[in-house]
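Good morning,

Both structures are done.
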Amino acid sequence: MTTLRRAIPADAESVGALVDALLMELAGIPSRRDARVEAAARLLALSDCVFGVLAVDDDGQDIGVIMLTESASIYAGGAFGVITELYVAPAHRSSGLAQRLLMEAESIGRARAWPLLEVGAPRQPQWARSLSFYLRHGFTEIGPRLKRPL
């Protein structure tokens, strides 16, 4: 049975590698594993506002991850959660693992008294399956997210 556990700074290698796989799949970009491991180490050290959960299979292999960060806004009435990454290794998809990771994120949010979770869905229609997953689990569309490098 796959187990879920909170990610800690010592898990930076696993978290960085899983997020690297996610970003390569989503954007078709080359691996930047070392940079993502370094970023994971920095972020996981921010245990008061960044949260990670790893999915580990029976063989001890890390096969999924969800990363959350705490944000704040007036429209949310204060602090709320943002899912920044959610990834399940391809061989373990359609097994309910993403739903379990999402439920763990909701548990973290409830413990922190967040009124809501937000997530940015990947480009459509290419990643319609991802959008459908979130819609099936109670998320509603609020419009596209945009970014601007600084």
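Second structure follows.
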Amino acid sequence: MKCIVGLGNPGTKYAQTRHNVGFMVIDKLLERNGWTLNKSKFKGHFAMENVEGEKVILLEPQTYMNLSGESLRPLMDFYNLQPEDVTVIYDDLDLPLGKVRLRQTGGHGGHNGVRSCIDQLGTKQFNRVRFGIGRPTSPITVIDYVLGKFDKDEQEILNESIERAADAMESWIKQPFPKVMNEFN
């Protein structure tokens, strides 16, 4: 069984913001495959699907970003998942807009959603998809930037990168994460 977790904030106020690219990738996977987040438990909305004999959970925590691990940990415990069975997708200020980078481990890099996952799992050893949103170029706070929506001129790059991240997750369902890293990094 594998679990793909998209980090974001719940509610229409935060939909389509930079901080919600994790949700956007999950939504793309749902759309492509005709799936829905039809289960609500573990402080999150999730879908459980079967892909070529592999059970896959797609999770959108509803805890708000900074408490994302409080949704992931109980789901992992219930389904007896190990950290290597999980991939967390999140926005990353340190990568240029649209850059998608896969890693098997690492720190939180100042990202409070990832920090919560590390704290709740008790390890840094879980797969990640870092989704570049770039840093603000105008005088704006980081909080206002990540909670802001993408500009019109960013939409094409955003959409292509969402597709690429979704491609990587579909690939991971069928093959080991290191092989997916080699293909998509």
